[in-house]
Amino acid sequence: MTDRLPPLTALRAFDAAARHMSFAKAAAELNITPAALSFQIKSLEEHLGQPVFRRLNRAVELTEAGRTLAPGAADGFATLTTAWRNTRRLQDNTTLTVTAGPAFTAKWLAPRLYDFAQDHPEIELRLSASLRIMDFTRDEIDVAIRFGYGPDDGLFSQRLADEWMTPVMTPELAKQVKTPLDLAEITLLHDDSIRFLKPSCDWAAWFKAVDVNVDSSHGPRFSQADHAIDAALTGTGAVLARISLSHKELYDGRLVAPFATALTTKAHFRFICPKGAETRPQIKAFLVWIMKEAEKTRSFEEGRNFIASEDIQG
Amino acid sequence: MTDRLPPLTALRAFDAAARHMSFAKAAAELNITPAALSFQIKSLEEHLGQPVFRRLNRAVELTEAGRTLAPGAADGFATLTTAWRNTRRLQDNTTLTVTAGPAFTAKWLAPRLYDFAQDHPEIELRLSASLRIMDFTRDEIDVAIRFGYGPDDGLFSQRLADEWMTPVMTPELAKQVKTPLDLAEITLLHDDSIRFLKPSCDWAAWFKAVDVNVDSSHGPRFSQADHAIDAALTGTGAVLARISLSHKELYDGRLVAPFATALTTKAHFRFICPKGAETRPQIKAFLVWIMKEAEKTRSFEEGRNFIASEDIQG
DNA sequence: CATTTCACATAAGTATAACTTAACTCATGC
DNA sequence: GCATGAGTTAAGTTATACTTATGTGAAATG
Predict the structure, then answer these.
(1) Pick among A29, A44, A79 to test the B interface (most B CBs inside 10 A)
(2) By CB neighbour count within 10 A (0-12 exposed, 13-18 middle, 19+ buried), where does B187 fall?
(3) Is Magnesium among this UniProt entry's keywords (chains A, B) (predicted)?
């Protein structure tokens, strides 16, 4: 009565047979003859002490034991296959898969993609926009860009930029807005994507920071930061925008940030990859490039009156 | 550049070596000589195209490739081992592991355990009380008893008893309670564990059913049904109890249900096991026994005035 | 109703992967 | 300076995995 695993080839043969529900197809998948596969199954059944397949005339069906074993076997081999493929992928220094949130992808990465391609024509950059936390072991991801607090234990983590927020709008709209109080007369766009931040960084906090009393509860709300900025780009209203996401638009002059007062947050963007992976050529190249780009964002910090969001509520 | 798996024995050798961080210990685990294990690792590295271990003088450490592969390999083999063990367990007809919620375990299964042991001394029954939905493939569970709506697709499912609810209390307390209105004078105990039921089955619903106006918002609240019943057993107050959980106490006379009006729900208790497993001797015996016991509960249905909870709100 | 066909089982033999024993390397520690 | 510990390598053996060839039984075919 050993609980140790049976011969692994037999288990793999069973997995293939159970997935195809056919010995012949399973044998084809494994590049062996049906006879060999038949023996493997038989061997497995001897180890188990009972059959896993019921042999019908022109088909096979799983016994209860087979049904018990099949899902776990499929799952186990799928895990092994994925891990193996991801390990092999390390040798591929021509592609780099980066995951980031939809907003950062749209407003930060995508506009700079061309720059990166110019600097590193040998690297094929793939973007995977998702809020889901990716698993480097399971998903085919090399690098993640994440916004929040950290720390990321067991991973290589590099702080890219502190985040701060200030009202932005189109230059046309800005003509109507000379003082913070004037914001009460125009539409306020709300970015709900950062509601998870502990000292909240919304319009209410900003108005407190400039010490004016404006009801900021009205106006459209956006669950994704980039949509709020897109709305502001149409001239609809002003949005309290994260600098990292609006930097490109500010630089190009399509948006302006007329007020010096900015809210700082403890959250920041981080570059994350598995420990040790930061030395792989394409990851190193990407890190160097993104750090350089993040540094450029600092130009807008000049002349700002920074107020920490955590100092406001007290 | 094949993405097919390397020799599985080599992968398993790597898994053991990575877990122990020692070739010698890994070899001991696999009952092979260190030399054999060394070859396995070498073979894996040849298949991969790069080393997975860095050989130091008196130790080994994982390379980046090794670190990428190790978690997936460990996970994969753990899955396979679990699946295999669970399949082997099918041949064990002497134990039976049943999972149910804490309340059902405490108030229904536990008091009847002795009966089952009397009927089936050859079966060792194990109870696993947990609200967590168990996975028959992963956890060492044969049978689950679940309360709710179903359906349970892909599983064998047998409805055990419809659930209905009526006020219960100690006989002493019941002397003070002649009409539903009298309930306003005593403490009402609230069972919050069934708040997930769609037409709610709380005191408010029951008072509506008997058409009296009593404020039922006060009184202690219990997140677990058995705790509410335990409180009622001390004479603290009355609880709107699920019949299945209070049946034993009603039968023994420690609680009474003075009112005919009862709320029926669409939820019910179900016996669940993997499809086909219902024919295994100990599972079949348990099913027959639990059905018989559930049938006994029906004796309290006589003379009740059943009102469906979904008819009340309208 | 005989015949073909399909899907798997079995027998016998072979290739190869897995393993063992034994000798080797090379730093570490007493 | 010699034993020790951890891993490597070489040579040879065993057992596993696989192949070819043939067998079986029931369903499909015409």
Answers:
(1) A79
(2) middle
(3) no
* SS3 call for B124: strand
* Structure token pair of residue A247: 């930097």
- List residues bridging with A156 in a β-sheet: A273
Q: What is the pLDDT of residues A243-300, one digit of tens each?
A: 989 988 998 999 999 999 999 988 889 999 998 899 999 999 999 999 999 988 787 8
Q: What's the Rg (C-alpha) of chain A? A: 28
Q: Residue B287 CA to chain centroid, in angstroms?
A: 16
Stronger pLDDT, B309 or A27, i.e. the higher one: A27
Distance between alpha carbon B132 and the CA centroid of its chain, in Å?
A: 6
Report for A114-128, A142-156, A198-212: range of highest mean pLDDT = A114-128
Shortest CB distance from B8 goes to which of A12, A138, A274?
A12
Taking the C-alpha atoms of residue B156 and residue B153, their distance in angstroms, rounded to an integer, is: 8
Q: Is A42 exposed, middle or buried (0-12, 13-18, 19+ CB in 10 A)?
A: middle
CB A91, CB B49: distance < 8 Å: yes
- CA B1, CA A125: separation in Å to the nearest integer? 21
* Structural tokens at position B277: 């497993």
Sign of CA dihedral B100, B102, B108, B113: positive
The Cα A86–Cα A64 span in angstroms is 34
Residues B170 and B232: beta-carbon distance below 8 Å: yes
Q: B64-89 and A64-89 are packed helices; what angle lies between their axes, rounded to 10 degrees?
A: 180
What is the rounded average pLDDT of the residues B30-40? 93
CA distances B234 to B160, B190, B201, Å, are: 29, 15, 23
Distance CA B314, CA A48 (A): 58
A274 within 8 A of A155, measured Cβ to Cβ = yes
- pLDDT of B314 > 70? The answer is no
Q: Which residues of B touch A85 (CB under 8 A)?
A: 3
Give me the total of CB pairs closer than 8 Å, taking one residue from chain A and one from chain B: 134
Residue position matching structure tokens 């024995």: B9
What local confidence, expressed as pLDDT, does residue A2 receive?
Answer: 61
- Comparing CA positions, the residue from B33, B30, B35, B1 lying closest to residue B13 is B30
Q: Touching check for A198 and chain B: CB below 8 Å?
A: no
Dump pLDDT digits (tens) for B46-56.
999 999 999 88
Pairing label, strands A95-100, A124-129: parallel
Residue A70 has which token pair?
């099949």
Segment B19-28 shows an average pLDDT of 93
Contacts of B69 in chain A (CB under 8 A): 83-84, 86-87
Sign of torsion over alpha carbons B229, B231, B233, B236: negative
* Cα(B200)–Cα(B246) distance, integer angstroms: 19
The secondary structure of A220-236, three-state, reads: CEECCHHHHHHHHHCCC
Contact A292, A172 (CB under 8 A): no
B273: pLDDT strictly greater than 80: yes
Domains and CATH numbers, chain A: 8-89 (1.10.10.10), 162-265+297-311 (3.40.190.10)
- Interval A73-116: pLDDT, tens: 999 999 999 999 999 999 999 999 999 999 999 999 999 999 99
Q: How far apart are CA B48 and CA A78, in angstroms?
A: 18
Tokens found for residue B158: 């047998």
